[in-house]
Design a protein that fits this description.
It is built from 5 helices and 8 strands.
Length: 157
Amino acid sequence: MAKNTICLWYDKDAEAAAQFYAKTFPDSAVHAVHPAPGDYPSGRAGDVLTVEFTVAGVPCLGINGGPHFKQTEAFSFQIATEDQEETDRYWNAIVGNGGQESACGWCKDKWGVSWQITPRVLTEALVAGGEEAKRAFAAMMDMQKIDIAAIEAARRG
């Protein structure tokens, strides 16, 4: 296990979530599934307790802890995309698998984990600063999924 691992709390579907992430994002995999050694408040001995997985190169541990804690937007995965096709593919995979759209490139998967599907062109525009950044930011504020052509047009003014 990595020295620093993101731990994500799931009600009961950590393995299903990890499998979905592994098939959706490159450099992602499920590494190990560990059963509970005994009964616990939200499960029985032998139920899947933890899942070791990687999302886009980031080591994670999913724990099936029960309904006590919910995901919030205070944590999100930010996935940098190169073009509209890649942006659409990830967005549609998350939203189309029981997730929901949000604003400014954010969406949630069906387990409540927040994702920012962020084209590099948007990040570059914001880093550029000045009027270019203001125009790109204003365009982004009206979007759910990011439209790269609209961001590029805003950058040009």
